[in-house]
Amino acid sequence: MNLMKLRSVKLNDGLSMPPLGFGTSAPSKVPKTEVEEAVKRAIDVGYRHFDSAYMYLNEEEIGRAIQRKIADGTVKREDIFYTSKVWVTFLRPELVQTNLEMSLKKLGFSYVDLYLIHFPVPLKPGEELFPKDKDGKIIFDRVDLCATWEAMEKCKDSGLAKSIGVSNFNRRQLERILSKPRLKYKPVCNQVECHLYFNQSKLLEFCKSKDIILTAYGALGSDFGKEWVNQDAPVLLKDPVLNAVAARHGRTPAQVALRFQLQRGVVALAKSFNEKRIRENFQVFDFQLTPEDMETLSSLNKNIRYFSDTLFATHPDYPFNDED
Asked: Where in the sequence numbering do the catalytic residues fall?
């Protein structure tokens, strides 16, 4: 395998994306200024792919960090691949572009490189991210995701989003989009939880068959400080088998976990606000795992999810109820 080929992944719309991205979601206790500083450090290290969302409430800080690195000559806007996501209270077709424009205003950008449907369960439109009734129950909305997708296609046609895709979709939901009448653009990617303990092999195989990139969030496990994370799950980076493979290569467990994804054709998001780990996590392009390593690491799959938001679980489109 040519190591340099891993520096760019071709999308089905003819554009490309860097295969290693910098994730920016953080527990509410993390100051937004910390995210801003981390993005600036990541750019200095060499990251050019940044993943965020309207729902993360940090796009203003991320935009400011990127603008400052543009201003000091480190990068140009066209060097940056930026992903945002439409939140579930904006899935009505007439609201999709509105949400994108809200993100663009916060960022100070004229376009995003990739725009995703964040989650396939619509909630009642309004100012609250998680609207609830007087009994504390989440208020769902009725939206046809195919109509939402048509609004996403219009965002691409308008130039506000260079590419469009989805996140947290299962195979059935992807097939619904792919088989819709008058489909203009296929999703270029499906961003899902994917790591050694939940390797998504069947979904990856399906996505590859449809020329859709699978992007992995939670590739290093997860931050147990997040309220929606399964607190009983084992800590991925402490896995003894992973650590043994890392030791053989003289690498960190995180580097091996990321490299595993890259070699199987998955775009990986690495997230850390620690300067040393930001640097280490980027050093994954100068070594290669053997076929035996890949087989060993694949065998670690336990179908364990770190992320499970039970708020959505009663909705018929909740994607984790209907998986291969």
From this structure: 56
